[in-house]
Write a structure and sequence with these properties.
Blueprint (H helix, E strand, L loop, with lengths): L8 H27 L21 E2 L4 E2 L5 E3 L4 E3 L4 E3 L4 E3 L4 H30 L1 H7 L10 H34 L3 H12 L16 H9 L20 H16 L1 E5 L14 H5 L16 E7 L3 E7 L7 E8 L3 E7 L2 E4 L6
Antiparallel strand pairs: 1-2, 3-4, 5-6, 7-8, 7-11, 8-9, 9-10, 11-12
Helix pairs in contact: 1-2, 2-4
The structure holds zinc ion (2 copies).
The site of one zinc ion has 6 residues, from loops.
Subcellular location: Membrane
GO molecular function, one term: protein-cysteine S-palmitoyltransferase activity
Family: Belongs to the DHHC palmitoyltransferase family.
């Protein structure tokens, strides 16, 4: 109403820009969804077999995890340069679709900024209709019916919500692209830096080639096969990060504690039967919740006040774990192993 299509060149420009941003959002969204991140082939191992010692083995894909790859439980595959599993594209964001995913975010944010401005000015003119009627340009009076007003306010709210939420995600993505880190690698680096080490053993993140090269690697020159040919900074081993991951995993194994389940749990996200406090303080994560039955053994690796994270084991063997996830702390009691014997050391936690 206040900016009709043919009123000026500016309005034509605004319409063209808006259509471009909508098309770009949809195009990049569907590309990110259908191109997918790229998967590590089943049963994969590096060309040089002796390099296998630097890599973790994925028992679910029956192959080695290439550098930067991680197993996604939702995709049920090892994903190349996995960033995260995105429920909006129902796929992982990884090596092949990282650029498309980021372009989708920025297109959506810019489109919604433009919408917010157009809608806000429309609303402002509608509320000040009398002023515009008396002193303004009579050609472009904005008059909204109750339904039009409701839809305009609703659309303005949605557009603003996207700007804030998706804009935040875009900011985080760009920060990581500039450092050539994925969200998962960011965690590994934080743990690597805080891990106790000797003076001459300094951790250097191997993929940070400088901000411009890092951006180019994602948007213009996606690297080779996405498996082993990642360029690394001088002085780093091609497997620096995977070696660090193996050490961190060993550390985690050394820290884990065995618990036995004394109350069954159905895997619910809000288990009201386990008490209000447990129900109201769930872990802020979309990681799995594991259903458990009385007598199950769980190796716990993370502790919260009312929740524990661990691996459920089908036998007494620590390696034979079949599922990982969170469960309410009140369902378990802790054990320690002394000379091969399992001794109960703590009373039931409440
Ligand atoms: Zn896998
Ligand atoms: Zn996934």
């Amino acid at each position: 109403m206040w900016l009709p299509f043919f009123s000026s060149w500016i309005s034509v420009g605004v319409y063209v820009l808006f259509l471009f941003l909508v098309s770009s959002t949809l195009y990049n969204f569907f590309c990110a969804m259908f191109i997918g991140p790229g998967y590590v082939p089943h049963g994969w191992q590096p060309e040089n077999v002796s390099d296998c010692r630097y890599l973790q083995y994925c028992t679910l894909c029956n192959g080695y995890k290439s550098p930067r790859a991680h197993h996604c439980r939702k995709c049920k595959r090892c994903v190349m340069k996995m960033d995260h599993h995105c429920p909006w594209i129902n796929n992982c964001c990884g090596h092949h679709n990282h650029a498309k995913f980021t372009l989708f975010l920025i297109s959506a944010v810019c489109g919604c900024i433009l919408s917010s401005v157009l809608l806000f000015i429309g609303l402002y003119r509608a509320f000040r209709i009398n002023w515009y009627f008396l002193y303004g340009d009579h050609q472009y009076i904005v008059y909204l019916t109750v339904y039009q007003l409701a839809f305009t306010v609703f659309s303005f709210g949605l557009a603003l919500g996207v700007v804030l939420a998706v804009g935040g995600l875009f900011y985080v993505q760009m920060k990581q692209i500039i450092r050539n880190e994925t969200s998962i690698e960011n965690w590994i680096v934080i743990k690597a830096v805080s891990r106790p080490r000797t003076d001459d053993d300094v951790f250097i993140y191997p993929y940070n080639l400088g901000w411009w090269k890092n951006i180019k690697q994602v948007f213009w020159e996606p690297q080779g096969n996405g498996l082993t040919d990642w360029p690394v900074v001088q002085g780093c081993h091609p497997y620096t990060l995977t070696i660090e991951q193996i050490i961190q995993k060993e550390d985690k194994k050394a820290r884990k504690k065995q618990y036995t389940i004394v109350q069954s749990y159905n895997g619910s996200w809000f288990p009201i039967s386990k008490g209000f406090r447990t129900c109201l303080s769930p872990p802020c994560s979309d990681e799995y919740r594991i259903p458990l039955t009385v007598g199950d053994k769980v190796y716990v690796t993370r502790w919260r006040k009312r929740w524990l994270y661990g691996e459920k084991c089908s036998t007494n063997e620590a390696e034979d774990c079949d599922s990982k996830g969170w469960f309410p702390r009140c369902c378990a009691v802790e054990f320690t192993t002394t000379d091969g014997e399992v001794t109960k050391v703590s009373k039931k936690l409440s």
